[in-house]
Every structure is written in structure tokens, then in C-alpha cells.
Amino acid sequence: MKKPNEPLAQQVEHRPFKPGVLGSSPRRLRxxxxxxxxxxxxxxxxxxxxxxxxxxxxxxxxxxxxxPNAFLQAxxxxxxxxxxxxxxxxxxxxxxxxxxxLLYLFEEELIVPIGVKQLTVRDDSITAELEFVRLEQExxxxxREVKAITYHRLRFERREEAWEAEVVLDL
Length: 171
Description:
Layout: H1 8-11, E1 20-21, E2 29-34, E3 37-44, H2 47-63, E4 79-87, H3 91-109, E5 111-122, E6 125-134, E7 148-149, E8 155-159, E9 162-170
Antiparallel strand pairs: 1-5, 2-3, 3-9, 4-6, 5-6, 7-9, 8-9
Helix pairs in contact: 2-3
């Protein structure tokens, strides 16, 4: 049984996270409508699975059902890997900051994560090595604008036998 302030490393036995294409594992997410916002709840057996599902949910919310399949046709020369490391006082804030960084990269560089090469979640940090492709300008016409990742209802916690996170997007 989890103790309230027990460090993450002591709460669960970590199984290796299986890298792969975002959204290729069973969907463990549910979208929630909010007034002028969109939220989602994601869950998984490990914190790494939850982070992977949260990244997938964010870009599914932005790009719709074409994500990530429409971008998987990119050849090896069009794909590149980038490492993103976020540190924060707790898992919820680290997840928030990771999603905010990925949203920034999407807006500024028009890059979309399509795969996870490596993902490590600690009590105070998330390190992700992600595979990206560049989005063509003409594919931006039917995307949903996400202004920010909010702190409203933000959580990342162990619940019974699974890990769960809730995130609300400002549209």
C-alpha cells in the first residue's frame, strides 16, 4: 500500500517502459469537455505509460484522428530525435511543464512527436527522448488551437492498481 509521501521509486516496482509509436498501445484516455476548455484523463500501469498517453492525448486533441498515422509515412530522413528533460517539485508539475514544452515546440517549430525512444519518470523529473517529424504548413488548416496547458484540475497520482493523470487544455 502506498504511503502519502513515499517517494515514487518506493511506491511501485518499475517495469521497463516499451518505447514505440505514440498511440500504438491500447488507448488509455478519456476526453472531458469543460466550458471553453478540453480536458483528458489518462492512465497506465506505470508513470511512463501515463506520460506517453498524455503526450498522445495532447496531440490527438490538436491534430484529431489523423494523429499519428498521417505522420508515420515520413521517411527516415524526415524524422529526428530530441531529448526533453523537465524538472519540477512533483509529478503533476513536471507533466504540465513537459506538455507545455511540447506545445511550444509544435507552435514555434511545427514539429510533432510520433514516437517515444526512451522515457524516464522520477519523483521530480521527466526525461523523454522523442521522435519528431516536421509538419507542413498546409496541414495546419484543420488543427485545434490549444493556447496553454492549465493548472486547473491538474493531477498525476497512483490510484488503486494504476497511475492516472488529469490535464485541462485552454482552447
